[in-house]
Structure formats: structure tokens, C-alpha cells
């Protein structure tokens, strides 16, 4: 990491003297191969960096991984054939970025319900690929927790 004036060293020999950084992460056990994303903000060399879990990026990548896994299994995902009546979930599984945006912008209670539906679909569609499904589900669950707490 490079600071504003001189190189910023965070810990170890030559560490810059500053307060402890504020770090917001997820807690609990994480499945192998889960991709969780964080945003690191360094405002100045005098202030500690802020590390925050990036739920939107984590969810976007989890959905991309889910769509890729479904495409590998059946040649093109489940567009039009997803076992759900919700058009937004069908759109997400079909790779429609507008459908994912609609979920992220939905009111909190509705967003939680939609994300829970997406997790259930992942379990249903990826159940026999346990490790891969767990990695995707972990990322979706962590995103759901954080996004449900927002607003």
C-alpha cells in the first residue's frame, strides 16, 4: 500500500505510527474456495486504513460463479428453465445484470427474501457439487447478511 507522501508501511519493521485500523469483516466459518471481497480505504498517512466487507462485489462474483457452474453442467445455464416463478431470480440465473441490480436495490425485507430464494436455488441446482455449491452459498449468505443490515 502506498500512502499520500511516503510509502505507508502497515505493521512490521518501519511501520508507520498510527492508530489501529478499523476493520469490518465477516465472522464465522467460511467454505473453501469462497470469494469474499473487501474495500480498503486509505485517506492519509496519519489515519489508519479502513477495511470493509464489499457485499455487492462478493454477491456479483458469487452469481457469476453460479452461472458459470450451471453453464458447465448443462450448456448455457437455466435461462427460461429455472425452477422459480420469480422473474428476477430467473433473470439472475440467466445472467441478466439488470435482474441482479433489481435484487440489490429492492427494499431490505424483499432483498433478503430474494437472496434466500437464490441460495435455495443454488442448493437445488448444485446439490451434487457440494464443495463448489458451499463456496457460492457462503458468499451469498455473507452478502445477504451485510446487505440486509443496510438501509
Relative strand content: 5-15%
The whole-angstrom Rg is 19 Å
Number of helices: 5
What spatial form do the alpha-carbon principal axes imply?
globular
Q: What's the story with the biggest beta sheet? A: 3 strands, mixed
What is the structural class?
mainly alpha
Strand arrangement across the biggest beta sheet: 1-3-2
Number of strands: 3
Q: List the uncertain runs.
A: 75-80
What is the typical, i.e. mean, pLDDT?
74
Beginning-to-end CA distance, first to last residue: 31 Å
Q: What proportion of the residues is helical, as a percent range?
A: 40-55%
The succession of helices and strands, N to C, reads EEEHHHHH
What does this entry look like structurally?
- By secondary structure, the protein is mainly α.
- It has a domain of 95 residues.
- It is built from 5 helices and 3 strands.
- Strands 1-3-2 form a 3-stranded mixed sheet.
- A hairpin with an 8-residue loop joins strand 2 and strand 3.
- Helix 2 packs across helix 3 and helix 4 packs antiparallel against helix 5.
- The protein is globular and about 55 Å long.
- About 4% of the residues have low confidence.
Brief digest:
With 151 residues, the protein is mainly alpha-helical. The chain is built from 5 helices and 3 strands; from the N terminus they run βββααααα.
Amino acid at each position: 500500500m502506498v500512502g499520500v507522501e511516503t510509502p505507508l508501511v502497515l505493521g512490521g519493521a518501519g511501520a508507520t505510527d498510527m492508530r489501529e485500523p478499523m476493520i469490518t469483516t465477516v465472522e464465522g466459518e467460511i467454505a473453501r474456495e469462497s470469494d469474499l471481497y473487501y474495500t480498503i480505504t486509505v485517506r492519509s498517512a496519519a489515519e489508519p486504513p479502513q477495511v470493509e466487507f464489499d457485499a455487492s462485489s462478493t454477491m456479483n462474483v458469487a452469481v457469476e460463479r453460479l452461472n458459470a457452474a450451471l453453464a458447465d453442467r448443462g450448456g448455457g445455464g437455466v435461462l427460461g428453465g429455472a425452477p422459480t416463478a420469480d422473474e428476477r431470480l430467473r433473470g439472475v440465473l440467466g445472467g441478466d445484470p439488470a435482474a441482479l441490480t433489481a435484487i440489490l436495490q429492492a427494499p431490505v425485507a424483499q432483498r433478503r427474501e430474494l437472496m434466500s430464494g437464490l441460495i435455495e436455488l443454488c442448493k437445488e441446482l448444485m446439490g451434487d457439487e457440494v464443495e463448489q455449491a458451499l463456496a457460492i452459498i457462503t458468499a451469498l449468505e455473507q452478502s445477504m447478511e451485510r446487505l440486509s443490515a443496510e438501509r
